[in-house]
Amino acid sequence: xxxxxxxxxxxxxxxxxxxxxxxxxxxxxxxxxxxxxxxxxxxxxxxxxxxxxxxxxxxxxxxxxxxxxxxxxxxxxxxxxxxxxxxxxxxxxxxxxxxxxxxxxxxxxxxxxxxxxxxxxxxxxxxxxxxxxxxxxxxxxx
Length: 142
Hints:
Blueprint: H1 3-17, H2 19-24, E1 27-32, E2 35-41, H3 55-70, E3 77-86, E4 95-106, E5 109-117, E6 123-133
Antiparallel strand pairs: 1-2, 2-4, 3-6, 4-5, 5-6
């Protein structure tokens, strides 16, 4: 199995069980070893009292992209620490794109950066996630 095939199969297994990302309206757009892209169109229910995309929604999108990237090798992995910097507001109707990429993987710990942009390429947020492999797999490899 190639790394790309493994990543796709791991993503399919995760997506099948990921009620939260689907509930929020996210779409898994791309996955490969050590990277993933998810998108979300900002709907009215994603907006806060200022009429802009709630920061928690932006964080959730980035966190989901991070999760698919750090599980792409079919090793069960969870978040250990995450931070986000908001650079611009997401607005109603915006198509947000979260692109996650691996920065470092040493033993059981990884570092991933996620850029969230809108349909015009404007940066909305920058997220950094620290991962920890917990053992086990998402699917059986024969």
